[in-house]
Each structure stands twice: as structure tokens, then as C-alpha cells.
Amino acid sequence: MTLLYLKLLVTPLLMWAISLAARRWGSLLGGLLSGLPITSGLVMTFLSLEQGTAFALGAVPGALGGLAAVQATYACYVLATRKVGLAPAVLLALLFYSLAAYAFTHWGNLYVSVTVALLLIGVLIHTSAREPKPDTLARPRHRYWEIPLRMVSATALLMITTSLASWLGPATSGMLAPIPVIAWPLMVFAHVQGGRAGMAAMVRGNAIGAVGVIAFYLAVAALLEALGIGATITLAMVLAVLLTVALAAALRKA
């Protein structure tokens, strides 16, 4: 019961905080924050506590495959929105995610997933840099129901993923862990409110943060059995944050 309360409390609070940060400091920061392994960290923590360490370790390869599929989905969305409207682009991107995640989970492996994810991250960073730059003076219209809807969506997906874990198995549960439940609403709303410039900034930030997510999962795989869930998740999150900040700073200077 305590874990249930944690899920219902922590997830919406994180979504609320990231949404406010994106409003205050822009889509790039929102993308960076949503790209960090926040949802993934929560899922892996609850999987370890509820299903055991071995189950969580078995979910890591699937999670990295899911991460590669997420990056492919962003690339699909960016390209699709150049040809079709927002709603068809979202549907196409989600369909593409399902196909890509299935392919990585069933025919890929950890090394393939990491390699493909890094290549796609590079493509997204390069592509987003060629999109229009956000107008820092423009003030997009914010609707009162946006943040509550994001909070409910994030919490619902976390509940579904962890509740069905024993039935789905570690591979599929891992694949669902990196689903961008926080980043997707942020990106779509940024696109609606700020146009392609806002969307591109969100995608760029999320792609940079995804490098930290890869480091997070590799650290979990290496440390979980030796250190336990608490220390492992803490160290993996610190590593992800430091790597993301360093990469963002390097790209800003470039």
C-alpha cells in the first residue's frame, strides 16, 4: 500500500515541477528535464521493490531497446510534421514506436539498442538545430487543464506498467519503462503553443537527456546486484544528471 501511495504522489509532482520549469525557462530546459531518467527511474525502482532484483535486471535490455525506439519516434514525429498535421503525425509516431519497440525487443540486443539510440540522438540534435529558434519574447497561451492532464497521464502509465509487470514479463516491462510519458505531452503542447521552434527545442533537450538515460540503465545493470536498489538508483541518477549537464554545456559552446 505504501508503494501505491508513492506512485500516486511522486509521479504527478514530478510532472508538475517539470511543466512549470518548462513554462518559466523554456522548452529546451523542459526537454532536458523530461529527457532525464525520471519515469524510468521510478519504474525500475518499483519493479525492483515489487518483482525483485533479478526481474529489474532482466528489464534493462528491453528498456534500452525501448529508449532507441523512443528516439526513432521523435525522429519520425519531426519528419512527419513537415508533411502532415499534428494529429496524424502523433498517430504515425506512436505507431512507429510500437513497431520499433517490438523490433528492438525481439530481434535486437543491448549493444544494438545502445548504438542505434546514440546514432538517433546525434541525428535529433543535428536536425533540431536546423529548425527555427524559439522567440524568447513570445508568450504562448497556457490552458488551465494542461498540467493536470499531463499529471494524470504520467501517473496512469506508471500504474499500468508496474501493475502489469508480472504478467508482461521483464522484457516488455523494460520496453515500456522509457516511454516518454512526461516528454510526449510536453513536446506536443510545445508544438501547439510555440510552433516548430518550441517543438524542436523540446526534442533537442530530450535527445541530450537521453544520453544520461543510457548511462542510467548501464549503471543499473552493473551495480544493482552489488549495491542494492537504493544506492544503485541514486548513483545512476547522479551519473545521468552529470552527463546530461556536461553534454548540454558542451553543445551550447559548440
TrEMBL record:
**What are the UniProt keywords, alphabetically?**
Membrane, Transmembrane, Transmembrane helix
- Spell out where the chain crosses the membrane: 29-49, 55-77, 84-104, 110-129, 149-169, 175-193, 205-223, 229-251
- Return the protein name: Uncharacterized protein
